[in-house]
């Protein structure tokens, strides 16, 4: 059994309306409400902060991504199918009966393996690795992701912030999409906190569109946090349909 839930906050000042949210999921049940309750105040504060946000000037910036933004990048850039133990998108075998296991996609900058189900493995003459997933019993199974994440590094958030002369801390991922044929990526983010001379200034920009060429984006990563946390209330869909549960961080 798994549980998915979210906290959504809307606030207004005159004609201005802003909103934010945080998604949650777990392998379990209503105990997830305890972790949600302790976050309510901070989520409400974030929504109020957005009332003072301004639009960002388009350009290239040094950015730090909070776990949910990092996870969305991994999901869209190369994820569409890694399976990690004990999260809401985990399973013992996929919807075509293939035993599931962890899939290492990229290691030290080298593409090691893609993802596939029985049908795609047959066409590619490779081994099926258990990523055939369907929205329901009456739907077609597609090669789909499960839980997608970067392995931990050795860096701390305070050192990341201190390393930036001018840039942003990105948080509160909302949606994303990718162009698999041309290696394009686009991620929507609700909040960008300004960093100047290694310190947060308190100024907020919203909304943010993070876009680029996936190989360039991945090669530009210079620091990786030592903390890994898989969670979130996300689903992966094909346009408006074929929704399956995923998690990432």
Structure notes:
- By secondary structure, the protein is of the alpha+beta class.
- Helix content is 20%, strand content 35%.
- The chain is built from six helices and 15 strands.
- The chain has helices at 32-37, 40-50, 67-79, 118-124, 157-162, 214-219; strands at 3-13, 16-26, 62-65, 106-107, 110-111, 132-133, 142-143, 147-148, 166-179, 184-196, 199-205, 208-213, 235-238, 241-245, 247-248.
- Strands 3, 9, 10, 11 and 12 form a five-stranded mixed sheet that branches.
- A hairpin with a 2-residue loop joins strand 4 and strand 5 (110-111).
- The longest helix has 13 residues, at 67-79.
- The chain is globular, with a radius of gyration of 19 Å.
- The mean pLDDT is 84.
Short description:
This protein has helices spanning 32-37, 40-50, 67-79, 118-124, 157-162, 214-219, and strands at residues 3-13, 16-26, 62-65, 106-107, 110-111, 132-133, 142-143, 147-148, 166-179, 184-196, 199-205, 208-213, 235-238, 241-245, 247-248.
